[in-house]
Prior knowledge:
- Helix content is 29%, strand content 13%.
- It is built from 9 helices and 11 strands.
- The protein has helices at residues 87-103, 110-142, 261-271, 303-318, 335-346, 372-376, 380-389, 408-421, 441-457; strands spanning 181-182, 192-196, 202-209, 216-222, 239-243, 278-282, 321-322, 328-333, 353-357, 396-403, 427-434.
Amino acid sequence: xxxxxxxxxxxxxxxxxxxxxxxxxxxxxxxxxxxxxxxxxxxxxxxxxxxxxxxxxxxxxxxxxxxxxxxxxxxxxxxxxxxxxxxxxxxxxxxxxxxxxxxxxxxxxxxxxxxxxxxxxxxxxxxxxxxxxxxxxxxxxxxxxxxxxxxxxxxxxxxxxxxxxxxxxxxxxxxxxxxxxxxxxxxxxxxxxxxxxxxxxxxxxxxxxxxxxxxxxxxxxxxxxxxxxxxxxxxxxxxxxxxxxxxxxxxxxxxxxxxxxxxxxxxxxxxxxxxxxxxxxxxxxxxxxxxxxxxxxxxxxxxxxxxxxxxxxxxxxxxxxxxxxxxxxxxxxxxxxxxxxxxxxxxxxxxxxxxxxxxxxxxxxxxxxxxxxxxxxxxxxxxxxxxxxxxxxxxxxxxxxxxxxxxxxxxxxxxxxxxxxxxxxxxxxxxxxxxxxxxxxxxxxxxxxxxxxxxxxxxxxxxxxxx
Length: 467
């Protein structure tokens, strides 16, 4: 599927951007036009997603907002009845005279009326009970009202270990008996429920201050159902760090159940197409005014260190992970695809693979102005050539994705990279072209299911069941 571009590229690997920003002509802060849409149905929704304008983030540059929960009107009980069965009047008229003659008016129709009313109230009570059960089930499924777990503490293991890590095992950071596994090192993070999937697994969220970057931000996490399976109690799990496009602040849209990333990974793992990945979903940028290329730009927040050091450290502190780079990968869309792609190329000793969907290929944040040397050290083209020239022993695996309806600049950028660096030396590439796909996250989840998640899973280490 790869082909060389027809031109339009700047010298030294750069290429002309539309609107001075991301390939789709969008951007934020200095970029005219705002963010490009990142998913037609709304992102990052807590079960339903953000209220969107034009299918993506608000074009004024502000983050999306949560819609109010759908209201449920009050139950009307007896549909306006006064509690009397209309048959009472019928029976009274029909039989009252007969009973008066036979019994001298002693009983009239009291027995029949009592039986009829008892039957009516039995039906009413039963109906209320059924409606209550059905409504409760719906509310529980939608996590509304008293059935919601949102904000409740979340533990991702059978109990915290003595050193503060989670997920059942011996002391923090000690061996499990499996030489590949790193047990939780602690300290334990105080995760709160952000969402719950249909299979009962939970998405947790915590705000941390990275010890290495000094940056404070949110990270959402998810563990598949296999993580609590007793047969994997001593085994580490691979980690997939999922990065969003758009502003990547104040939320990471992969944390919402509306895009189906977590449920899809659960399904693919059951089908044998995917490893049962742990997910880490950090914010990508420190604000919604500028983009930072997932890098340590001089004078700015150290977002490169945040993504490649502090977020992995959080996972090691709280989960059973794998010691080697075979258990660590990125995925991302648009600007998040670039950040994940660059992270793997810059740190091949720590990360083995990435799914880069509709990504930029070169750094283009306006914050790099005056720092050309530092910018060059965060350019995947430069980093890729270096891996080839030095014959790196750390092979890296890049699964690119784009939709056929994406802007030509995006498709050509990926094709040019594959033609120049793909499957050369330690760099292995795969391309998923999504028919009818646009520049949005739902398109990219579809592409992952088509081939990309299976391709990187084949390169990654998975959990080992106990014998």
